[in-house]
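Hey, resending since the last one bounced:
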Amino acid sequence: MKQYDIVVIGGGPAGLAAAISAKKAGVSDLLILERDATLGGILNQCIHNGFGLHTFKEELTGPEYAARFIEQVKEMEVPYKLGAMVLSISPEKVITYMSKTEGLVQISAKAIVLAMGCRERPRGALNIPGFRPAGIYSAGTAQRLMNIEGYSVGKEVVILGSGDIGLIMARRMTLEGANVKVVAELMPYSGGLKRNIVQCLNDFNIPLKLSHTVVGIDGKDRITGVTIAEVDANRQPIPGTEIHYDCDTLLLSCGLIPENELTREIGVEMNRVTSGPNVDDKLQTGAPGVFACGNVLHVHDLVDHVSSEAALAGENAAAYVLAENQTEKTHKVTLKAENGVRYTVPQTIDVENMRDSVTVRFRVADIYHNRAISVYYDGQKITSRKKRVLAPGEMEQVVLKKSSFAEYPDLKEIVICTEEV
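The structure tokens again:
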């Protein structure tokens, strides 16, 4: 069985950035495994602009952003295999994958970087009544059919869910001549970025109905219409609020789920809020030498954050392989999310061996106005930053500096929360 120093699972933006970072850190014996026929992942179908403002200080489309990293991978001669579907990863870091050219293959790795991305929540998970006619797509499937395969998926469109992909597809279908009648959202707030609501809905006069969901689908062979209704505080439809729309297409943009079937096989502790593995400040899971980054860890709103997080995971995987910073003395501190903060990534920090600073990313649970994001060390407030608006669709972050822990030699817990100003 061939052994590699590092194997990166996934050749999307996270996997590419992690592999490049590991190579720069001094590990040459590495391999990227990508199940698709090309590198670049989901970015290949994201032909809209808005990528790269943080990483490259310019606005790029998804394929342009991916191409920057693919070029680096090829220039640095980082090995990769396409059409390689990983079937399992054992706790001993044995990877089984299948490919058309090689058949069934087993390899092992000293370190693994998990970068499998995420998938959309399907109709079956939404419990929408009605038949199963043609014309119902997840927003990402419709995006691929239009942008890569060159198909038109429909002319009269209703969209359920206001995630970023759904918002972007509302604009995309309008530009292709379709009539997007409404975007319905179950929650009382949008799950997408504010800029996407403005640029994709407001600029095209597409209505957004918050606290609404689909309660009926008409049509047996092809969808002919949908009925939406307002929902109450318990997200149950309110009788008498139904509105019917004639349509030939329903797009579902109802959330993203990290692809962690392989992660669970390794036996690491999973986080019930993010649906990804719990990690420390090195982005290492509970399994030594197994790191996670990008949307497989938690769903990001900006690919620039994916790339920076993945670069850190690749660098730390290289350090693990090269046995750097493998000190006996550790001081692990738990991070807790409270009072409006849904989760934190990472979930623990080793204040003894951390870098000069650690970026902690998180999302809030609701829309808040004029609140502060505060950080407490064992009950003592350390920092507080006022924010005019906090929304679940926008990822927030705080930076913890190593120097701030000097006065807390017995620190046990860091709390990140929102507070009234």
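The chain has a mean pLDDT of 94.

Sorry for the duplicate.
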